């Protein structure tokens, strides 16, 4: 009888868990890789030191880890080159991920010249051939080559790269250190901004892993942030739908949310304008700023916005309260010129504390202070004291890093809990997704309506749990009574 009672309560527990009262839902995978024939073409010339070559292998391994490897999924090959070309792994060699990763770990550098054109020709003629495992007759399978090089090639790449692209091979070109940008552009597929990447050293090549995870996968749009929902994204098969937090209502556009009232805030953007950002990416940063401004309740009595740009020095673009309409703010942001010098993040943070949030620069007493700090590289000065002072004074600090930004520095800038105030992406083209996440966080104000809704929701949950507990107690008493009858 005890076994029956135990089974009964086990069923009840499973039922409760299934309905989400006590259970937790396992997070879904962010994406599954599209069936792809992927070939890495890696430069192991004498300029690539042994430790750096290990970092290239680590980069390849991390990309492979994110993929669905298999006979009918993604197949991976590796072409190693210097003065000559070596076919390290064919597309047909390994169908299981563990064996593939072990094989990558055993690859040794060739340590001679840099014949990049010869390596691409080898990939076209052999690596992507039927004999080597390429699925050339299957239009559902993508053909992708990722070229990693750190120098100027000793042969021509333009013509053979064009032949490769004409053959349907999508080429990503990654340059490291002394790599020639013109050569990278000659090799890569269109759009160049999506297919050409540059990192200053092999130490940071690993940061490009996320880009290729996204490029080679079919995404859970909610999990990757690739959606237009202002607050809550609910995944559906191959798509998503939007929802709102308690106290908010979904607008007719099906994406944005409206709350009962909006508390005012002073928001200051602190933007890195150093030379490493580059002009085309600086334009993306301006769009990032305006994307967030669009979501704010801007007005004389509502949210005020200020903008600071820094490089080797700090420049206030406009102070808080200078513009009181979204239209004027966005126009001023578009007109901002690029400073293009060093990266004095610490100096910029000191300016934020001493000037941007000072009443003499338009800050209002009793209004929440929010700073969004954007950088793409390591600071050339000390940031700790200024970052601590900003947080000690109650400023809400968001840190956004791109490309070569140092994640430890971003965490030092970000308010607690750091996980809610710190964002990083390897690619400038992904910052619009960060902007979407920031929109919801910056706009989630402490207003009475939202608080009342949360209290009401909590009360309802407690009522349900209380009711369920009473029912379980009643069932337990009935079972105990039944056991007594059976014993008698």
Write the layout of secondary structure elements.
Layout: H1 2-18, E1 31-33, E2 36-43, H2 50-65, E3 75-81, E4 85-89, H3 97-105, H4 116-127, E5 142-149, H5 158-166, E6 169-176, H6 181-187, H7 192-195, E7 196-199, H8 209-215, E8 217-219, H9 221-224, E9 232-236, E10 239-243, E11 248-250, E12 257-259, E13 265-272, H10 279-295, E14 304-310, E15 314-318, H11 326-334, H12 345-356, E16 368-375, H13 384-392, E17 396-402, H14 407-413, H15 418-421, E18 422-425, H16 431-443, H17 448-487
Parallel strand pairs: 2-3, 2-5, 5-6, 6-7, 13-14, 13-16, 16-17, 17-18
Antiparallel strand pairs: 1-8, 3-4, 9-10, 11-12, 14-15
Helix pairs in contact: 2-3, 2-8, 4-5, 10-11, 10-16, 12-13
Number of helices: 17
Assign the structural class, choosing from mainly alpha, mainly beta, alpha/beta, alpha+beta, or little secondary structure. alpha/beta
Amount of beta strand: 15-25%
Gyration radius (Cα, Å) is: 28 Å
Mean pLDDT: 81
General shape: globular
Strands of the widest sheet, in order across it, are 4-3-2-5-6-7
Terminal Cα span: 13 Å
What's the multimeric state? single chain
């Amino acid at each position: 009888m005890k076994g029956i009672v135990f089974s009964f309560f086990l069923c009840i527990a499973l039922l409760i868990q299934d309905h989400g009262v006590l259970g937790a839902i396992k997070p879904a995978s962010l994406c599954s890789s599209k069936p792809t024939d992927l070939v890495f073409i890696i430069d192991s010339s004498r300029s690539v030191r042994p430790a750096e070559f290990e970092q290239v292998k680590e980069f390849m391994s991390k990309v492979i880890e994110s993929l669905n490897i298999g006979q009918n999924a993604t197949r991976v090959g590796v072409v190693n080159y210097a003065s000559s070309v070596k076919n390290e792994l064919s597309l047909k060699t390994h169908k299981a991920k563990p064996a593939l990763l072990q094989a990558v770990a055993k690859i040794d550098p060739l340590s001679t010249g840099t014949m990049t054109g010869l390596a691409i020709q080898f990939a076209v003629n052999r690596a992507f051939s039927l004999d080597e495992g390429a699925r050339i007759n299957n239009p559902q399978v993508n053909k992708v080559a990722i070229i990693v090089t750190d120098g100027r090639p000793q042969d021509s790449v333009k013509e053979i790269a064009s032949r490769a692209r004409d053959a349907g091979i999508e080429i990503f070109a990654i340059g490291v250190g002394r790599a020639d940008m013109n050569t990278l552009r000659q090799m890569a597929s269109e759009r160049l901004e999506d297919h050409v990447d540059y990192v200053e050293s092999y130490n940071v090549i690993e940061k490009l892993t996320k880009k290729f995870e996204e490029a080679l996968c079919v995404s859970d749009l909610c999990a990757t942030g690739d959606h237009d929902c202002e607050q809550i994204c609910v995944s559906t098969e191959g798509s998503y739908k939007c929802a709102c937090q308690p106290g908010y209502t979904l607008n007719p556009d099906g994406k944005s949310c409206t709350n009962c009232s909006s508390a005012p805030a002073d928001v200051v953007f602190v933007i890195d304008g150093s030379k490493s950002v580059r002009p085309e990416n600086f334009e993306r940063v301006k769009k990032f700023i305006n994307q967030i401004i669009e979501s704010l309740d801007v007005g004389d009595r509502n949210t005020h916005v200020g903008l600071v740009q820094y490089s080797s020095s700090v420049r206030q673009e406009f102070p808080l309260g200078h513009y009181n309409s979204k239209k004027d703010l966005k126009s001023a942001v578009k007109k901002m010129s690029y400073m293009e010098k060093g990266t004095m993040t610490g100096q910029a943070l000191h300016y934020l504390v001493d000037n941007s949030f000072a009443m003499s620069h338009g800050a209002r007493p009793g209004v929440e202070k929010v700073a969004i700090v954007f950088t793409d590289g390591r600071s050339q000065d000390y940031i700790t004291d200024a970052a601590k002072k900003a947080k000690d004074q109650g400023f809400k600090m968001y840190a956004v890093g791109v490309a070569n930004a140092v994640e430890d520095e971003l965490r030092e800038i970000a308010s607690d809990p750091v996980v809610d105030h710190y964002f990083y992406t390897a690619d400038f083209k992904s910052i619009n997704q960060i902007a979407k996440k920031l929109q919801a966080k910056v706009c989630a104000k402490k207003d009475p309506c939202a608080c009342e809704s949360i209290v009401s929701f909590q009360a309802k949950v407690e009522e349900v749990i209380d009711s369920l507990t009473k029912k379980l107690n009643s069932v337990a008493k009935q079972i105990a009574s039944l056991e007594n009858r059976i014993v008698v």
